[in-house]
């Protein structure tokens, strides 16, 4: 085995390890819920932002992908301990799939405080696009916007600010 091959293998194992740890953090955050219908409020978006911002776009997206595969295969990782392909076809599926581009975009949260804040805010808002559009298939667009976005604005502001503060504190440490 050449040194380059060994380095690539080690990098691949590290990525897989970080992705599994990230998916575990995402699964744990899904269990912290405020029951709302049709979309529960969880701490998942905070973790999605941190996975991307701290791990980079590749690690963040890999962790989210691992989480989605685990849930699709029946591990009880989704909100409220739910699992299975039906969850990925239900009202919250768009939000779950929206975690992927949100984590990747959060991976660009580098540089100045205003840039980091803008990137994390954009990443957080990005996941609402597929979420609301998918939810609209179940509730209609007006109800989807209200139940899948407007009600989440205060939590989005708080979790984005918390992600920014955590990111800055960890990068200083």
From TrEMBL:
Keywords: Cell membrane, Membrane, Transmembrane, Transmembrane helix, Transport. It is found in: Cell membrane. The chain crosses the membrane at residues 86-105, 117-138, 144-167. It comes from the Bacteria. Gene3D superfamilies: 1.10.1760.20. The keyword Cell membrane applies. GO terms for cellular component: plasma membrane. It is a multi-pass membrane protein. Belongs to the BioY family. This is Biotin transporter. It comes from Teichococcus coralli.
